[in-house]
Amino acid sequence: MRIKFVCDRYCGVAQGDVRQLASAAGIKLSDSNYDAVVIIGGDGSFLNHALDYKKPVLPIEGVHRGHLKSVGMLTEHKFSDLPMLLHRLSERQFKVVPEPVLELKHSGNVYRSIGDFYVERIDTKEAVRYKAVIKDGTNKTVSYAISNGFIITTPIGSTGYFSYLDTLEHHRPKRIEGIGFAHILPSTVKDMVNGKNVVYKVRRTFSMNAKIDVFLERNTAYLFGIPKRNSGIRLTDGRISARAINGGLKKIII
User: Fold this and answer.
1) In the chain, how many domains are there?
2) Are 122 and 202 part of one and the same domain?
3) Taking the model in full, what pTM does it have?
4) 89 with 108, same domain?
5) What does the pLDDT look like over 66-100, one tens digit per residue?
6) What CATH number does the domain containing 7 carry?
7) Closest CA to 241 of 158, 114, 133
């Protein structure tokens, strides 16, 4: 079994320790010809790096230092579990589960994320005005909104920013089954399903086959959630399209 290790700069783990543990487990390390990828860090490390590789990925929580610690929802194992995990990998005692990837198109550019994309106002006091059209099989949901922005998420990303309302109420975020769409601090929302008015919801979940188109009335918003990019990009036109690609990521489960 050949493994590529990716250690986030904040993971608190020395490369020498990883090599020593891998050697003891009979694991060969390789940066070019490998069977799987082990990412050591936090949720952000997994979200930022997992799409770089076409091989199955195993996320492991690194060693936290200091008083503040992020809540890891995507890393099911801690670094202290690494000897056991490497043994399981060497014996091929694991399964690979496909995860969806979110593909977003804007102004001729295509972006992909295993988590979420979100659009928010920035450098302006104006709220974001938009119409979201979600086609899901025979159903068509239209949401007119004035808010600070909106979020489009995969099941993996639903445990993050999408669940900020749960976090505020001290509830543990839950993984959704499908694509999530949420308004950020809305002041006005009007929802319609198949042409009929329905009860307003801050968050809605659609099937993995749903297609989302958002039309902004004003280009006063920025797009965030692009992997490895700390800042957002200003939206140069008023349309965003998003859909899920099933099986775009392979995650190792042990």
Assistant:
1) 2
2) yes
3) 0.89
4) no
5) 655 555 678 889 888 989 999 899 889 999 999 99
6) 3.40.50.10330
7) 133
Contact between residue 119 and residue 213 where contact means Cβ atoms under 8 Å apart: no
Residue 96 carries which side chain, given as an amino acid letter? Answer: V
Q: How confident is the model at residue 9 (pLDDT cuts 50, 70, 90)?
A: confident
Token pair of 160 as six digits: 């993050």
DSSP characters over 42-98: -HHHHHHHGGG-SS-EEEEE----SS-----SS--EEGGGHHHHHHHHHTT--EEEE
pLDDT digits (tens, 9 = 90+) for 150-186: 999 999 999 889 998 888 888 888 899 999 999 999 9
**Do both 227 and 119 map to the same domain?**
yes
Cα(175)–Cα(7) distance, integer angstroms? 26
* pLDDT score at 230: 82
Polymer length of the chain: 254
- Tokens 């109420």 correspond to what residue? 169
Residue 63 sits in which domain range? 2-93
Distances (CA, A) of 114 to 2, 91, 225, 248: 24, 28, 10, 8
- Tell me: the pLDDT tens digits for 123-140? 888 899 999 999 999 999
Among residues 93, 110, 134, which one ends one of the domains? 93
